[in-house]
């Protein structure tokens, strides 16, 4: 299909996103017309972009000739009428549907019928935006991420009436600028904001349930999760403090409401209270952590995991443990006797490895509820003895004795590897969050919002995850992910943990989650 040639590109709204879009496409060769309703805002944006380029010249990253050429492509205009020569106008104005519809009506009065109108919205429906347009086929989403020149992904959003030619033009234009373009249907959150619900939302639920505190969750997600040596660069609470709850919580509520109270996206009352109190994160010097004037978190250091006692004299490992021989061998290497009898003795440290269940339920299923004082659980979702491991997570139940906790801390704390304790819960911490990330990614694929490869590319580039959610599921094993989710759903009776049919079918057939 022949695409529309875009020589002149208009940008309406010259805040951080509009500036970034103008910079990106000026560098890519388009003539840019910049418009803002705020007096002098567009001119100030142009100066900011030029200063950025001058800084790159000073650092030797671009030449003075490039800077001069790019700067000549930036032109400030004073009215919508001046955008008439544009083959494409990208709006990056306030996130209000009525105001965006008013702008579209103004643009349609001056642009040619072939010109494209694209919205950088992150949360509003493109279909609704185009509902009153004379030519809705020309309207699409063109959602970039901040900072635009550095975040190398853009979501091209196809609304109900968007023409294939418009889609192809935007995809080609983005690719020519050096960005990865991913195609999404017009659904709440598109790909990235939709997929991102698993990480922070589930972390908030864990804390609300009293499973672990903010710092432990962040350390576990950074130091325990490993996909071939790759992990999350920031924990969920660090990330929400960086973004700001005034940005992240409204997105949580919006996605939840737009999907008609889908349990997977249920927001947190804890976040709502903090937002109401303006405890937003780094921008207010207080969020989930407190920050000094330089933005350093003052209370993100973990307290000691508890008393470190003497090593246990003996351990009893459940026969159905994940790789029980490896766990037994590791205990013996620490100088601890392994009781291989069918049932534990009264003096054993009992090590269980529930897979999605909480420790209390697992003890009951094994008929060991009378041994609760001796029992702890070890998270084996990610290999706790791998060379890349920096943290092991242990779980206690309400009956676990302080002496047993101290012995377990001594056993599993080794040089270079710390221990985090969590309270009795379904799925520990890291498996629960990671499984929800995968589950939501699978549901995006099941609903046909985007192709599997585009889902993974968008999440990896847009959110900075070590892998896309479908590749994560393949790395762990679809059957294993489905088993953990099913156990979490059964134990909690909460439908948020139900496995997507996309995951279930591929697990049953032994297929990759990337299989279309």
Please, could you describe this protein's structure?
With 516 residues, the protein is an alpha/beta fold. It has 20 helices and 14 strands. The chain has helices at residues 16-28, 41-58, 64-72, 97-108, 126-129, 164-176, 192-195, 197-208, 214-223, 236-243, 245-258, 269-276, 324-333, 359-365, 402-412, 430-446, 452-463, 469-476, 478-492, 501-509; strands at 8-12, 31-35, 74-76, 88-91, 116-119, 139-143, 153-158, 180-185, 314-317, 337-338, 349-352, 375-378, 391-396, 418-422. Helix 4 links the parallel strand 4 (88-91) and strand 5. It is elongated.
Task: Report the end-to-end length measured between terminal Cα atoms.
Answer: 24 Å
The whole-angstrom Rg is 26 Å
Beta-strand segment tally: 14
- Average the pLDDT over all residues and give the rounded result: 95
Bulk shape: elongated
Structural class: alpha/beta
In this structure, how is the largest beta sheet organized?
8 strands, mixed
Percentage of helical residues? 40-55%
State the strand order across the main sheet: 3-2-1-4-5-6-7-8
Strand content: 5-15%
Q: Uncertain regions: pLDDT < 50 for 5+ in a row?
A: none
Helical run tally: 20
Features:
20 helices, 516 residues, eight-stranded mixed β-sheet, six-stranded mixed β-sheet, elongated, alpha/beta, 41% helix
């Amino acid at each position: 299909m022949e695409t529309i040639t875009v020589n002149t590109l208009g940008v309406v709204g010259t805040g951080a996103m509009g500036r970034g879009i103008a910079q990106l496409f000026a560098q890519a060769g388009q003539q840019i017309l910049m418009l803002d309703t705020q007096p002098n805002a567009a001119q100030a944006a142009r100066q900011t972009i030029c200063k950025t380029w001058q800084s790159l010249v000073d650092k030797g990253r671009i030449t003075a000739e490039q800077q001069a050429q790019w700067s000549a492509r930036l032109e400030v205009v004073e009215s919508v009428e001046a955008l008439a020569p544009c083959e494409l106008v990208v709006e990056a104005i306030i996130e209000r549907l009525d105001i965006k519809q008013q702008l579209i009506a103004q643009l349609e009065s001056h642009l040619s019928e072939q010109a494209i109108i694209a919205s950088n919205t992150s949360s509003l429906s493109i279909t609704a935006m185009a509902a009153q347009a004379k030519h809705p086929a020309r309207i699409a989403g063109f959602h970039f991420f901040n900072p635009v020149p550095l975040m190398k992904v853009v979501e091209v959003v196809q609304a109900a009436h968007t023409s294939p030619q418009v889609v192809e033009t935007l995809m080609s234009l983005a690719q020519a600028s050096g960005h990865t373009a991913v195609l999404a249907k017009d659904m709440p959150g598109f790909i990235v904001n939709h997929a991102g619900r698993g990480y922070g939302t589930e972390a908030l639920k864990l804390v609300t349930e009293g499973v672990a505190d903010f710092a432990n969750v962040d350390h576990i997600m950074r130091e325990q999760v490993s996909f071939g040596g790759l992990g999350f660069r920031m924990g969920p609470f660090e990330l929400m403090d960086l973004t700001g709850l005034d940005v992240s919580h409204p997105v949580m509520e919006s996605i939840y409401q737009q999907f008609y109270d889908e349990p997977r996206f249920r927001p947190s009352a804890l976040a709502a209270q903090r937002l109401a109190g303006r405890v937003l994160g780094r921008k207010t010097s207080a969020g989930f952590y407190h920050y000094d004037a330089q933005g350093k978190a003052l209370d993100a250091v973990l307290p000691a995991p508890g008393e470190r006692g003497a090593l246990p004299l003996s351990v009893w490992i459940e026969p159905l443990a994940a790789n029980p021989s490896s766990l037994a061998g590791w205990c013996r290497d620490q100088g601890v006797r392994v009781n291989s009898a069918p049932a534990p003795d009264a003096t054993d440290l009992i090590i269980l490895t529930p897979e999605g269940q909480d420790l209390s339920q697992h003890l009951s299923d094994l008929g060991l509820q009378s041994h609760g004082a001796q029992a702890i659980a070890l998270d084996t979702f990610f290999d706790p003895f791998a060379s890349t491991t920096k943290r092991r997570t242990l779980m206690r139940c309400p009956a676990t004795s302080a002496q047993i906790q101290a012995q377990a801390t001594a056993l599993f704390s080794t040089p270079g590897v710390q221990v985090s304790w969590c309270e009795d819960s379904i799925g520990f911490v890291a498996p629960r969050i990671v499984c929800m990330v995968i589950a939501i990614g699978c549901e995006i694929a099941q609903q046909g919002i985007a192709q599997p490869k585009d889902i993974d590319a968008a999440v990896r580039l847009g959110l900075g995850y070590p892998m896309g959610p479908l590749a994560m599921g393949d790395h762990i094993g679809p059957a294993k992910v489905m088993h953990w989710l099913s156990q979490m759903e059964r134990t909690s009776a909460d439908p948020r943990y139900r496995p997507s049919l996309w995951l279930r079918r591929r697990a049953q057939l032994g297929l990759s989650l990337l299989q279309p």
